[in-house]
Amino acid sequence: MVQKKMDKILINKNKIKQTLALVFAIVFLTLLFLNNLKLKQMAKINAISSLNEINEENISPRELFLDSWYIIKTNYYKKNLNNQNWLRWKKHYLSKIKTKEDAYIAINSMLLSLDDPYSKFMSQEEFLNQNNAINSKLYGIGINTASISGKIYVVNVLENAPAFHAGIQNGDIILKIDNEDIKGYTVYQISQMIRNSKNMNVELEILRGSEIINKTIKKEEIKVKTVQFKKISSDIGYIRISSLIGLESVQDFIIALNKLKSSKALILDLRGNSGGLVQNAILIANLFMNQGNIVTVVARHNKKNTYSAENEGCIYNNKLAVLIDNNSASAAEILAAALKDNNRAILIGTKTYGKGLVQKIFALPNKTGMNLTIARYLSPKGNEIDKIGVEPDYEVIFNHNDFLNGIDPQLNFAKSYLENELENKI
After folding, report:
1. Segment 32-75, tens digit of pLDDT
2. Rounded to an integer, what distance in angstroms lies between the CA atom of residue 12 and that of residue 8?
3. Does the active-site annotation cover 67?
4. 187-220 per-position pLDDT tens digit
């Protein structure tokens, strides 16, 4: 009896060792792939998208203004700086800046004059929040939202997150955040309002059925898991990537893809993905492509850089369908357009948001920072995306009634399409 128990323990230990060995092997191969690909791609990619640590240097408010003035003057993607004489800002503000607040006002005024909603100055707190997001650490309340028929719905509440404990439920409609009416706002704007709020408490006004409910929810650090995956049939796998902002996104995606590598077809869900890091989009596109251009970046002076797939980067060659909607933006649009233009995938859903501009992160002294538009990007076929978006191959609407009835017509269409493709292949 004792021997049998000992044998059972040894068998369990061996199984654990085998499982750990498999996990370590996947992580090792992931890192090896990224390192090999990065050697060829990252030098070019870093020219358009850099990750910066906090700049600990302390300088005067006036020097901070001058640093910012010069960075904008020499790096903004439009050389004419929105048809203005940039020297006027130095003449107007330099002698007036005495305090940190003066510098912030002057820098923000310069950036506003560019008429570019994506170029922004960040205070110490705001820059720290952004760096935390890149490192997959966010302060928020733990909800995922979707825009359906013009309304912002809560579609997922993370277990044990602040929103979960406050009683927020799937299907709640958000009406106001911190007493500000959010009618007409995008999912991206909503997430930024909650994350970047200077208050640790977020005031939500929600509609549940016919009842209006007010909630005060304290923000906490949320461990971001941007990749979810599952088998939806014996032949079809499903991967949802909700954001491309985290440094761990590509590694998590490769692990998911390895788990589903036996699938004869795959659905990639980019709905509600507001973008993130350009390099993440390029690296993930390369996982499905052994050749072809991924994106062309057009910088100042019309200087073009084209980023292409490396043959050794491709690890999945089977059939692929991509789900998109009007909240798929920026880096998510780079990924979707690359797969569409190279005939690598069919796109299902609705036209994407249309953010075709690339921001570079500048770490400024005094622990502040700036996101500055330094380029625009084109799809592999040379199509503009900014303010235009990426069109699906098959338009499928996901409306208010579908959501209330728990139906996902876009996912169902993708599944049926791939099943038919697999049948025809046989």
Report:
1. 444 544 444 555 555 555 555 788 899 999 999 999 999 999 99
2. 6
3. no
4. 878 887 887 666 789 999 999 999 999 999 999 8
Mean of pLDDT values over 258-267: 96
Of 140, 261, 250, which Cα lies nearest the Cα of 194? 140
Q: Do the Cβ atoms of 235 and 416 come closer than 8 Å?
A: no
All residues at 6 or more sequence positions from 351 whose CB lies less than 8 Å from its CB, including other chains: 324, 326, 389, 390, 391, 392, 395
Q: Are 76 and 89 in contact (CB under 8 A)?
A: no
341 is catalytic: yes
> Would you tell me how many other CB atoms lie within 10 Å of the CB of residue 343?
8
What average pLDDT score do residues 163-180 get?
A: 93
Q: Which two tokens stand for residue 416?
A: 């049926």
Helix axes 2-46, 278-288, angle to 10 degrees: 120
Spatial distance between the Cα atoms of 198 and 217, rounded to a whole number of angstroms: 14
pLDDT at 283 over 80: yes
N residues, the chain: 426
Mean pLDDT of 135-154: 81
Q: How far is CA 94 from the centre of its chain?
A: 37
Nearest of 145, 175, 149, 173 to residue 158 by alpha carbon: 145
Claim: this prediction has a pTM higher than 0.85: no
Catalytic residue among 119, 243, 249, 330: 330
Query: How far, in Å, CA of 131 to CA of 369, rounded?
Result: 10
- Of these residues, 340, 341, 379, 415, which one is catalytic? 341
Catalytic residue among 355, 360, 379, 415: 355
Give dist(CA 270, CA 359) in Å, integer: 20
Question: With pLDDT > 70 as the criterion, what percentage of the chain qualifies?
Answer: 85
**Residue 50, Cα to own-chain centre: how many angstroms?**
15
Q: Report whether 194 contacts 202 (CB < 8 A).
A: yes
In 3D, which of 269, 263, 281, 270 has the Cα closest to residue 318? 263
Ramachandran bin of 301, using left for φ above 0, alpha for ψ from -120 to 50, beta for the remaining angles:
left
Name which of 224, 288, 293 is nearest 257 in CA terms: 288
Residue type, 58: N
